Amino acid sequence: MKSVFLVDDSPTILASLSAILSRAGVPVEKAGTGEEALSAFKAGKTPLRMIVTDYHMPGMNGVELVREARRIPALRFVPILLLTTESEQARRDEARQAGATGWLVKPVDAGKFLSVLNQVAPA
Amino acid sequence: MSEALSKRDVLPRPRWGAATGMASRDLVVAGLAAALVLATLRLAAFAGISGPAVDLVVSMMAALLVFAPLRAFDGVPGTIREPSPAPTADAGPPPQQTVLSDDLAGAGIVPTDEPEEPAPMDLEMQAAPEAPVSQRAQDVAAELLAYGEVTDLLGAQIDAAVEETATSALTTITNLQALDTAIETLLRDVRSAQEVSHRTITRGQEAVSANAALVSSLRDTILASLEDASQDRRTYEEIAEQANVFGTALDSIAHIARQTRFLALNATIEAVRAGGAGQGFVVIAAEIRNLADAAGTTSDEVRLGLQKLRETTSRRMKQKLDAVDEISLLDDVEAHSRAAVAGYEDLSRHQSETLSMVQHVTEEAATHLVAVMAETQVQDIVRQRLGNAKTGLQRLGGHAAALADGLLDDALPLESVQASVLDTMRANYVMKSEHDVHTRRGAAAPSAQADGLPAIELF
Fold it and tell me: Smallest CA–CA separation between B166 and chain A, in Å?
């Protein structure tokens, strides 16, 4: 079964979203930085169903990670969502141009989060 | 006021050589301190943070800001300490008491003497010789420089608080997951119990149906047996009637046999009386008597056989008629069986309803549980907002240091707290709520954040 990859420097966000996904029976992989996530993407050990990344992280930010991920052939068509406290239109446009699939503002409702998952990446 | 301002743009400055020389500098110091107090309070308001811990920290800082300039007044509110003597001979006349700023006066600090007329404002930089820095100004500058330590301490407090909330949030999630697991187990058990209950009811209904079929079959068999018994009864009654007729015939035969025996006896007597002529007849009479005896014996034996036939028939009839009681017993068994199963069905239905209710409640609880898990994301939002507040505090400390430098060196430009702290803070906001709080508290211009953007947007 394909996994959902979560990238966030906040352990709380990782734990919260992991709990929601795991409860829905969705396998989860996690990374605390963009660099760590990118290494995992390049290793490509697990097929991914969707990637959810924070915008603001130490080092590589979320949009840069999207840009790098899109260069990996296996991730070219994998949905990537930005999950962030940012709400400015300019940042959204930046994410869209980088190849992101969508933009979620924290905190995201559990039901809506799973709904988006099933919408952009049906099981 | 977003652009950097020089000190002369923001502070009334007396002409050097005027009678108010040192006293006016003290006024400047007090004004700066008061401005910092207000800036601190505004910063707390702009950060949009609240809570007992934050209030305490902000209060501590505000108190420190108030206390610092008061140290220049000998600790007596409203009384200005005698300034240190000027190191140079042209330092001007002896210092005079002066009035505190409106903000300090509003805080209950009132001068004891009438203030002198303030010196006229001179917005142009005077080419006067640089005045020596008073001891009071140096003390205030040192206090202002100490704000950096305070803001560092506040930053550390914020970091510790954020760390505690993160630990708490993770613990909460862990506990919620454990609770969720328990609920899942409970739900699984409930579903299993419902399946068992359903299977049991089904098996019970099947057993009752089979039992009813068996009872029905037995009833049919018994009813058929009763029908046979009824038929047999009629046959037996006919047999008995025939036997009675036959018995009557036997009685006649026995009577004839007795009469024949008497007749044979009389014939024998008469033959003996006839002498030799009757010898042959004596033999015949003896044979007739023997035949009569045999007829009587046979008649008795047949009567005895008929009696046994009557008894056997009667017994068989009674046995067959007892089947009526068996049918009644079967009806009772069937009724009890149905009643027992009906009771079990009621019990099972009640159990099923209870289990359904438990399932509904646990599923609802699980839904709330997931919602609470999602709500822990707020900790990350608070972390970021407190991080921004911490940055604002650090900027405020830097601003205080700049004020201290400006206090000691007239050549240094002064930047307003609006430009050096508040505007920078606002520029670094990433959340609409931060902009909203800033705008609401500070009456600033509306934020650049677009309103009405959806929380979820798929490109």
Answer: 6
ipTM higher than threshold 0.90: no
Written as one letter, the residue type at B30 is A
Q: Which residues, listed in sequence order, are joined to residue A4 by a DSSP beta bridge?
A: A28, A50
**A85/B381 CB distance under 8 A:** yes
Apex CA B410: angle with CA B407 and CA B411, to 5°?
Answer: 130
Q: What is the distance between the alpha carbons of residues A104 and B275, in angstroms, rounded to a whole number?
A: 154
Residue by residue, DSSP assigns B60-98 as: HHHHHHHHHHHGGGTT-TT-PPPPPPPSSTTS-SPP---
pLDDT in tens, A70-116: 999 999 999 999 998 887 888 899 999 999 999 999 889 999 999 99
User: Are the C-beta atoms of B402 and B415 separated by less than 8 Å?
Assistant: yes
B203-212 contacts, C-beta under 8 A, 24 or more apart: B204/B341, B204/B344, B204/B345, B205/B341, B205/B345, B207/B341, B208/B337, B208/B338, B208/B341, B211/B334, B211/B337, B212/B334, B212/B337, B212/B338
How many separate domains does chain A show? 1
CATH value at residue A100: 3.40.50.2300
Cβ neighbors of B438 (< 8 A, separation 6 or more) are B46, B48, B422, B425, B426, B429, B444, B447
Contact B72, B32 (CB under 8 A): no
Q: Report pTM.
A: 0.58
Contacts of A66 in chain B (CB under 8 A): none
Whether chain A has a CB inside 8 Å of the CB on B427: the answer is: no
Q: Which of A81, A31, A21 is nearest to A59 (CA)?
A: A31
Picking from B120, B129, B323, the residue whose alpha carbon sits closest to that of residue B233 is B323
Record: contact A85-B457, CB cut-off 8 A? no
Q: How far apart are CA A91 and CA B141, in angstroms?
A: 42
Task: Kindly provide the b/e burial profile for residues A77-105, where b requires at least 16 CB atoms within 10 angstroms of the residue's own CB.
Answer: ebbbbbbbbbbbeebbebbbebbbbbbbb
pLDDT at B82 over 50: no
Could you tell me if A28 lies within 8 Å of chain B, comparing CB atoms? Answer: no
A contacts of B450 (beta carbons < 8 Å): 87-89
Q: Mind giving me the DSSP string for chain A?
A: --EEEEE-S-HHHHHHHHHHHHHTT--EEEESSHHHHHHHHHHT-S-EEEEEE-SS-SSS-HHHHHHHHTTSGGGTTS-EEEEES---HHHHHHHHHHT--EEEESSPPHHHHHHHHHHHS--
Structural domains in chain B, CATH included, are 7-132+390-442 (no CATH), 179-371 (1.10.287.950)
Phi first, then psi, for residue B49 (nearest 5°) are: -105, 150
With an 8 Å Cβ cutoff, is B182 touching chain A?
Answer: no
Highest mean pLDDT among B172-186, B238-252, B284-298: B172-186
Q: Would you give the DSSP letter of residue B421?
A: I
Q: Which of A6, A13, A17, A85 is the best mutation test for B, with the most CBs of B within 10 A?
A: A85
